[in-house]
Amino acid sequence: MLYKILGKKDYSVFLSHLVLEHDLIGPKKVKDQIYDFVPIKDLNEIDIRYKKTTLPPAKKLLFPSTEELLSYEFKEKINLTPVNKNSEKILFAINAWDLNGVNFLDRIFTTDFIDENYMEKRKKLTIIGMDTEPDVNNFALQMGSEYAKSGFDLFLSDLGDRYFVRVATPKGNGLLEKYATVAEASEKDFADYDAFMKHYRKKFKSMADIEDFHENFEIAYGKIQLWDKLSKNCFSCGSCNLVCPTCFCFNVKDDMNINLKEGIKSREWDSCMICDYGLVSGGHNFRPTKSNRLKQRYRCKLKTFVDKFGTNSCVGCGRCIEACLAKINICEDINSIQKEVSV
Ligand code: SF4
Ligand code: SF4
Predict the structure, then answer these.
(1) Whose CA is nearest to atom 1 of ligand 2?
(2) Does the global pTM surpass 0.85?
């Protein structure tokens, strides 16, 4: 890792080069308080004051909600052609918790199998991270996601009159060398950065009692009444999965042309919270009740990947809390579950 200092004026010059000479995706206020990551054509469109976007920006690019995987044609043999329409892009101003979501997806799509569709896009994505203000439902601090150690090419922290830049890859360094005037970070810059992070961490107000949660989870798992209570108002709509930066389940489907000689294989996001998720041929449903499904979702988020990867598959972004019409709140539920096992 290299550590550089980028002055505020140089930052604007740097960014204008990126906008003019690259396909840059960045945060933009699209309506009232609604922000989204969109292709940026003009520097003035970028608004780094966003606190949240409905969908996680990197997931939208790397693992879109629907995606064609390959086309096929029946001739003397079956011809398969991968669908690959990716180009180099820069994702600008993604925050640390969404970046940690990317780090999780990177592991999912490269452990046990390599997902070529994901990886082709990932290799072509340059990531420039930036600290942004957490909103009221954000509990990234307790999930250890308020800071990203990796997954980015550059990461910018605003020290007021200058940016402290962490340079993680040759690609990121190349962009700085080409478009920016930077200086090596001095001892004072490091001290200011430490003070910045200390202050930044105080901005996370939502608290989740996550300590030892994964160990306590098995005790809570068998408490049927607890799960009935937590899931009582759930509509099984799946919105919580759709907005989550780490949910990765998908269905694969075939669309065969009417001539029955060619077709497209594609995938689309699936949700473990909808009734049919656990339905198998023969009519058996492994998770027939909303209580079963919520319990499984929390197990996946807060236990399974602690055992498998040593990390939660929840980064504490709070999107599912805001998306849930039934007001089911994962942060409050973590605390309720902890209380339940401690009595
Ligand atoms: S968003 Fe809320 S209501 Fe919908 S499935 Fe998730 S927990 Fe249930
Ligand atoms: S489970 Fe909820 S809070 Fe956790 S990462 Fe997913 S959307 Fe964010």
Answers:
(1) 314
(2) yes
pLDDT tens for 27-83 read 999 998 899 999 999 999 999 999 889 999 999 999 999 999 999 999 989 999 988
Name residue 129's beta-bridge partners: 94, 155
Please compute, for residue 84, the number of CA atoms within 13 A of its CA located in the half-sphere on the CB side: 14
* Distance in angstroms (rounded) separating the CA atoms of residues 316 and 98: 9
237 lines ligand 1 (CB under 6 A): yes
Choose the residue to mutate in 269, 319, 334, 335 for probing ligand 2, maximizing ligand atoms within 8 Å of C-beta: 319
The stretches in the chain having pLDDT less than 70 are 343
Do residues 140 and 104 make contact, with C-beta atoms less than 8 angstroms apart?
Answer: no
Distance from C-alpha of 36 to C-alpha of 22, rounded to nearest angstrom:
19
The pLDDT value recorded for residue 185 is 98
Protein residue whose Cα sits closest to atom 7 of ligand 2: 244
Asked whether 323 lines ligand 1 (CB < 6 A), one says: yes
The CA-atom distances, in angstroms, between 91 and each of 35, 109, 122, 127, 152 are: 15, 19, 11, 5, 10
